[in-house]
Structures are given as C-alpha cells and as structure tokens.
Model the fold of this input.
Amino acid sequence: MADCIFCKIVAGEIPAKVVFEDDQVLAFEDLNPQAPTHVLVIPKQHIATLNELTAETAPVIGHMAHVAAQIARDREFAENGYRTVMNCNQDGGQTVYHVHMHVLGGRALSWPPG
Done:
C-alpha cells in the first residue's frame, strides 16, 4: 500500500531501528516505547487488520509470535515475562492499519492494560 507507513518501512523509504528481519517479517523499535523494550513485529506483506487474514496469510501470525519470543530471549526477559499485543480496528486501539505485534518487556506489566 503506497500510503502505509509500515509498508514504507519495509521498502526502506522510512528509516527504522531494525532488530530482526527475514523474508516474512520485520521487527523494529517502537518510536514511542511503553516499556524498556517495545518492539513492533510486522509482516512484510500488507495485511490491514486481523480480520483480513486468510488461510494463506494466517501462518505469518505464528511466525511473528516465534520472532517475538526470540526477541524476548535475546533481550533476556523471556524468563521474567513479557507481553505481546495485537490491536484490531478502532475500538481495539489499532492506529496503523497494517497488522503488527507489540512486544513489551523489561519491567513488570500491570493488568488490565487500558
């Protein structure tokens, strides 16, 4: 999508502090961190919301979770715990309409989140 900020990051048109990349996903530091570690994991393919997942695109969500767990291990907070969040549409808190997973860690996180 030409006007999608995350697609522009994937294309290299907008810089990001990349922490992981492979052929399916890109992970980068959030510009407005809500925890000591706040990384976004996104599919390279544009999928606007979870509602647009198909049988063909759904496996990328599992890969995103696998990458999130590896980031938590690499940053050494996997054992203490961390949170992954995926928002869907306006009431769910989604502000960028490109599926993404927040990985938050490095401190105790409270519940409920908001």
Remarks:
- The CA atoms of residues 25 and 43 lie 4 Å apart.
- The longest strand covers residues 37-43.
- Residues 59-74 form the longest helix (16 residues).
- Helices lie at 5-10, 59-74.
